[in-house]
Amino acid sequence: MSQKRRALGRAFDLPWSPVLRCEIMPVPRGRIVCACAAALLAAGCAGAKAAAPAASQPAPPAAEEARPARPTNLEGVARLQDAHGQELQRLAGELKALDAQQGFLVAELKSVNEQLAKLKASVDEAKSAFEDSRRATPVTPPPSAPAAARPAAPAPPAPLPPPAPRGAGPGAAVPVRNPDADKQYAAALAKLRAGEDGQAALEFTEFVAQFPNHPQAAAAQNWIGEAYFRQNDFRQAAAEFQKTVDNYTQTAQVAEALLKIGLCKRALGDAAGAKAAWDLVIQQYPKSEAAAQARSLIAGKAGAPARPR
To answer: How far is CA 275 from CA 235, 240, 259, 294, in A?
Structure first.
């Protein structure tokens, strides 16, 4: 060990070795060498630690590198603000347009709903009138098959054809049901019940002209007179009721027409004409409902009678 120390002392025998040998620094040279080596080692570690964080620091992300440069002067800032303002104005205009379109669609939807409600009410009224007309029209049962003819019994006489309306020629056809005519009659009756008296009178007049032999033709003619009666046009109403008396033979409808003629006469101030019409109803159709109402009117016990059916 002492030999190694001597060799190390010779290696570090520098010009300042006399200083080390002076009395004010009695420390051995071995300790000094160790201290220097430790200082050098510590300095190297500190340098390595300082370089390590710099090498391990991550690079900035690509998004930050791709970010557009911010304006560096007032003119660039003004241009950017103008661009943002124009974009806001465009978006505000589009929002207003969408609001207006939404309001228009809401209004259209409300209008369509109202039209559907009116159409449904009209269809219901037409259906009700059609059902009423079907119930009011008597249905003739089909003739039964003739029984087997007996050799000894004579053949029965052929049945007489139903009476044709007054004024019809000898070749007039027997009234038959027509679906289109039934629909037209029901529609006109719905107009009358809805208070559209003028339009109902026109449609009933067209119905009578197109289907004079229809089972409801006499009733339609009475409804024409009723439409004018509601409008206080008593002269025209009396003329229309007189057409029923002149052209048709249905007991109920003719009796009803005579009763209404008397009411028109009374409304016009012709008391004698009114009584004559009511007397005619009682004489010709004594068992009808119109005759009972005519007796009440003559006796002064009732007001206006029921409307024609």
So the answer is: 17, 19, 10, 9
Best CA proximity match to 244, nearest among 288, 183, 184, 309 = 309
Give the orientation angle of helix 179-193 with respect to helix 217-230, to 10 degrees. Answer: 20
So what's the pLDDT on residue 20? Answer: 47
**DSSP string covering the chain, please?**
-HHHHHHHHHHT--TTHHHHTSTT----HHHHHHHHHHHHHHHHHHHHHHHHHHHHSPPPPHHHHHSPPPP-SHHHHHHHHHHHHHHHHHHHHHHHHHHHHHHHHHHHHHHHHHHHHHHHHHHHHHHHHHHHHHHHSPPPPPPPPPPPPPSSSPPPPPPPPPPPPTT--TTPPPP---HHHHHHHHHHHHHHHTT-HHHHHHHHHHHHHH-TTSTTHHHHHHHHHHHHHHTT-HHHHHHHHHHHHHH---HHHHHHHHHHHHHHHHHTT-HHHHHHHHHHHHHH-TTSHHHHHHHHHHHT---S-PPP-
Q: What's the pLDDT score for residue 231?
A: 94
pLDDT in tens, 214-233: 999 999 999 999 999 999 99
> Computed from CA positions of residues 263, 265, 269, 275, in that sequence, does the dihedral angle turn out positive or negative?
negative
pLDDT at position 244 over 80: yes
First to last CA, the chain: 149
Most distant CA pair in the chain, distance = 184
Could you give the CA distance from residue 244 to residue 266 in angstroms, rounded to a whole number? 19
Q: Lowest-confidence range among 13-22, 105-114, 165-174?
A: 165-174
More confident residue, 2 or 22: 2
* For residue 142, pLDDT beyond 60: no
Could you give the percent of the chain with pLDDT greater than 70? Answer: 60
Mean pLDDT of the chain: 74
